[in-house]
Task: structure prediction
Amino acid sequence: MIAPRFWASARPGILARGLAPLGALYGLATATRMGRLGARVDAPVICVGNYVLGGAGKTPTAIAVARLLLNAGERVAFLSRGYGGARRAAPTRVDPQMHGALGVGDEPLLLARVAPCWVGVDRVAAAREAIAEGASVLVLDDGLQNPSLAKDYSLAVIDGEAGFGNGFCFPAGPLRAPPARQARFVSAEVAIGGMDAPASALPPGRSIFRAHLEADAIVGAELVGRPVLAFAGIARPEKFYATLEGLGAQIAARRQFADHHSYDPKEIDEIVAIARRRGLTAVTTEKDYVRLTAAQRLMVRALPVTLRFEAPERVATALSAALQARRLDGRAQR
Result:
């Protein structure tokens, strides 16, 4: 879906206020569901989620967290629902050489480049499969609002520019539940970009980690001063456009699609034809790029981005403490 513009309005309008009672019910149901006890598995679970619908930077954050854990000597495995892929009851390990986005979803293909990734509706079964194959710690990409799997440390990712939108719950706004209700299940927040004082729902004493998204330097250098046709099927395509402009690319045309959009061959053919006719470079996000066929990728440029923590040592220390606490607790219960 493409987020309605009124979700981002600082002053909620008539439509948002009219939908607010329905949003209140939705938020209550979500918050109640989050309070259910989840199944405990034989490895620590680190959850990377967010308070709102749509993208806040969860997948780049999950990758950055996984790299910190890998650097610490952990055997990491990702767990993902595989949004946009086939609905799977049984867990499946993602093989980027064999699977495509229609089969497993776009984000798992990116995650699997870093560490083994398992997709499936049953997250507990996926977790047990990953542990059986040697994982010492699990990173759950999304799932903050899903109580099926007990978490040992949960990060809520916040877009520093968008914050909580208009402050209403879906469908009146972007929130999945009131932030304060969700924050009860959050260990720390990751604020990506934005202002010096990011929106936060945490009580005093819990950590807020600042971070930013950094575009690939090599691709970025190639796009400086170049006229481009930018297209994206992500929750906030304006972030992608702003990144391109920040690199010095000249956006001459834009095409916007719904998040996780499955591209029809005609759509890509049209984009490429327009780009060629006007002398533009067709460029998209890495998440969109993996949804294209091998032949289509030859005609399109991808702009990868990496999440950089401003104080990675703080995040690494917090993760280490969470793992140690879980393992000490596990030994005490034996």
